[in-house]
Amino acid sequence: MTFNTGNPIGSTDARDRLDNSENLDLAVNSLSPTFVDRLGVTRDTLEGIYQKSAYYRAGTFDAGYTLTNNRQTLAYGNVEYSWSGVFPKAVPAGSTPATSGGVGAGAWVDRTDLTLRSDLASESGSELVGYQPAGTGAVATTVQSKLRETVSVKDFGAVGDGVADDTEAIQKAINTGKDVDLLGLTLKISYGVLVNTEGQTISNGKIVSSDSFSSAATGQFQFKITSKRVVFQNIYFDINGLAGGYQNFSAFIANGVSNCNGALLFNGGHYSSVKNCYFTRTYVGKTAVSFFGVDQNLYTTVDKCAFEYNYGGAVFTQSAGLHVSNCVVRKSNDAGIAFNTGGAKHGSVTGCHVEDCQYGGIAVESNAHHITITGNTFYQTLFGQNDCSILISSFVAGNASCYSVSISGNTFNAYKATGTGDIVVSSIIVQGGTDINISGNTYFSGGDAHNKFVFLLPLFGELNNINISNNTITGGRIGALYTNYRSSNIDKVVFSNNLYDGGIEFFRAIGIPSLPTQSTGIIFDSNIMPNTTGIMFDGPSAGNVKWTFSKNYTPTWTSFGDSSLGKLTNTFNIRYSDVDGAWVSNAAPTKLAWKAGDRVKTITPSVGQPKGWVCTVAGTPGTWVSEGNL
């Protein structure tokens, strides 16, 4: 520096202006990476800035290249060199740093570290970093390959604030065919998203339908899935659908205004699953998750999901193999879980909490078969027309009845009945079916005395081979009510080994017309009814039903309206003694199987008449001997 006055910045001294000119010349033209300004501060020259900026490989010494700036490098083995001399710099093929100018100031400079930094910072930098997965036999890959196993909606411009329309970003992410991470964002969509890549997983976020949602391509659903093995997990779906129906949800959640029907429409989604998701506000009469099309969605699962305050239903299927487990289904304005007419079969509902759904918390509809409902808990606090926990339905004349349905190991709780009439307060309604097993369940009613455990109501279908056994029924009015409005055939309906600790009758028969010829009829065997009337016929008649009673315990046994015990066929009446638990009857048994040593006491002891009878040889009914007269 010529003068070095030390004057501060802003000086108008002519000497400082000359020094500033020299500083500018050094900064722009010097090949040294630094210079000292007139205030004694070391600063980067343009060359120095170039050296610190991104370097990139232009070629190799072996191939030869003509360099035009000092940010270009040539590779020699594993070392990257840039030229710090005059440009352009021509490097013949087959050269080395030593043969094409040498290494040092004004010649070749080793830039390997800076080049690597530049390469790592580039768009493809992650391709240069290796990744070794844990575990024996795991195959090494690159960080880029590992990261590209999934994509996020942010990769495609999603905002995720619940206000901006993120439909396009979601669709683009899904179109990659990679697993899609929603990153916990709230994503608003204005039209449906198509999923057609097998094995894709979409997870971790919240989907909300816009008020103007419209999507004929997806059936007015948020997502339409047409490929196999698709997984949705950890997603909150707010369908924002239009409200309707008798349930008033305004106290719980704001009514929706969108034309969106539901969240997930599967059509061709074999082996797909929905896990750990939440669904609310379906459109009135529609379903949150629909496996639509006969046998179009085989062997699907819904696990650990919650469905609340939906103006339609929760889950719907027309295919084989739907398994719903560990879910919560509450406040649905339609059937909660529906196994629909046409193709639903070999399905199950296990470990779920089901509460206050119209037309059945679980509905097994005409022609559905081999459905298992076990280990669930049902609550009813709101009642309306056709409300119940489980509906075995046969609504349409000519439809085949359901068959092979098992309802076992469930707990039913009925706490309140606001309606009147028999149909409005039953936990299980059976409108028709064959091979229906209702066993090992527990029922408790803490509300109105009209509450019932089972309502047998054949409308268009028959009741055949219905087994109601080993249930514990507490509270309410009637354990099982049978009413036949349409002369449908009823045969082999068996009530056995049930404990009914209710308030009035175990079973009431109302308005039974004449029926087709029966082979077995209705059987009551080994039921315990300690605090109630056993059977009541509340006319016009008992029809021509075959009734069989055996080994039941009840204090008052049977009450009839305009019927009489003499009208009943295949009858052997016997009950437990109120005092010591012995079998009692008015004669030695003439029916049923007994073992040697069984005893039966007389119902009405009197002098000169037998005290009772003992079975000396096992059989049906075996050999019976009087124990002597009083």
Word description of this protein:
With 630 residues, the chain is mainly beta. It is built from five helices and 55 strands. The strands form seven sheets. It has a 26-stranded parallel sheet that branches. The protein has a 14-stranded parallel sheet with strand order 15-17-19-22-25-28-31-34-37-40-43-46-48-50. A five-stranded mixed sheet has the order 51-52-53-54-55, with no helix packed on it. The longest helix has 16 residues, at 14-29. The N and C termini lie far apart (141 Å). 41% of the residues are buried. The model is unreliable at 418-424 and 558-581 (pLDDT under 50).
Class derived from helix and strand content: mainly beta
Given the structure, what is the number of helices?
5
Percent helix, as a range, is under 10%
Terminal CA distance: 141 Å
Major beta-sheet overview: 26 strands, parallel
Task: Quote the beta fraction.
Answer: 35-45%
Mean pLDDT: 81
